[in-house]
Amino acid sequence: MSDTAPGPVSLLSRRARRLPFPPVDRARKMRVFATSLLLAMAVVFFAARQFEHVHPAIGFVRAFAEAAMVGGLADWFAVTALFRHPLGLPIPHTAIIPENKDRIADTMAAFLQENFLTPQVVARRLTGMNAAAAAGAFLADPRGGEGRIRAGAAGLLADVLESLDQEKLGGLAKGALRAQLEKLEIGPLLGQLIGAAIADGRHMAVMESFVRWAALTLEDNEDLIRTMIHERANALMRFTNLDQRLANGILDGLYKLLAETVVVPDHPLRAKIEEGLEKLAHDLVHDPAMRLRVERMKAEVLANPAFARWLDGLWERGRVRLLQAVREPGGVLAGQLGLSLAELGNALQNDPRLQLLVNRFARRTLVGVATRYGGQIVRLVSETVRRWDARTVTDRIEGAVGRDLQFIRINGTLVGGLVGVAIHTIDVLL
Fold it and tell me: What's the chain's Rg over C-alpha atoms?
């Protein structure tokens, strides 16, 4: 076994076990005090009973202590009977909570569903909630308002993200992205994009950039072209230098063609290129053979190991960015992105129509979640409590309300003593 401290994964796994962490006994001091008070009343009772003949006032002390013992013992029995058998005796109707664990689980689940997870309740509670304004306030000033709560929640989310198995989580994310890409038919999408660009005239800038690139490429490879023409010319042409004149003519013609294509708006080459783009856009949308070729090319790209490496890098950068956004929201929301989000936040705060749309969407979404998954949530609560053993349920409930229950014992002891004094007073007077 390693002596190192358990990591986040091991800590999360412990939470899923029968008893994740020993419950904190917050009622221990009050339990000791209540028991000590009961024992003190017993000592006072026996002492007062021995010296009752010394003075009549001692009878009141004896009556107080006697009634206090009865009240303290009765409340001790009642409190103990909730969680276990008093003195280990199987008295009927004791150990109520462990004996009725499953019924308590079902009652808790029913209470949660009836009061929190029904569509009507969710819609009613969200009616007066302005989620859009709250989101707008955060986007406009991510550092303001409830900073400690936000920072704590962000830190918890970051710890959970870091504690998850990165290989499995990354595999799920990359698998989901790959599955979406495989289902996406790229051909019609590309065709529609090219068609929209041609209709808006945005293809002209791309075409001119391509022609300029071709001219620069031609200029960088002049020597290569001259060498190719020289090698393919016959001896007579090389002897008379006709090959050089031919190379110059070809290059000059190409330069002139490319320059005129850029300068002249209605140049035939422009029209030919545009015609080719229009045909490509049409075929990508309507030609099954072209769409099939594009899909095959897409499949080859997806199967290429280089794409897998790119996808790994994309996931890692996204994961690091997400952790950075959670741990340092102020830093991530800086710059142009921060300004854009701040503008969106101001719009959400000040535009009633936008608030209405966002709040309506949020309300419908949460009501839909409650409708579709409310039963599963309450079933999870019920099944979780049912899987706990009786000791776990007892410890958790007692840890939550045990301090108040010990106050009941203390109050029962003191109130019982006062009632005993009152009864003794009436007895003396009558």
Answer: 41
Max Cα distance, the chain (Å) = 152
The dihedrals phi and psi of 42, each to the nearest 5 degrees, come to -65, -45
Is residue 374 within 8 Å of residue 113, measured between CB atoms? yes
H helix count then E strand count, the chain: 21, 0
- Cβ atoms 139, 391 nearer than 8 A: no
Neighbours of 357 (CB within 10 A): 12
State pTM to two decimals: 0.40
- The domain segmentation of the chain, as residue ranges, is 25-142+334-430, 190-282
Cβ proximity of 75 and 409 under 8 Å: yes
- Whole-angstrom distance, CA of residue 4 vs CA of residue 341: 43
Chunked mean pLDDT (size 10), the chain, 430 residues: 40 38 60 90 92 88 92 89 82 81 79 76 77 77 52 59 65 76 81 81 77 83 81 73 80 82 78 82 86 87 84 79 67 57 79 83 81 77 76 75 84 91 88
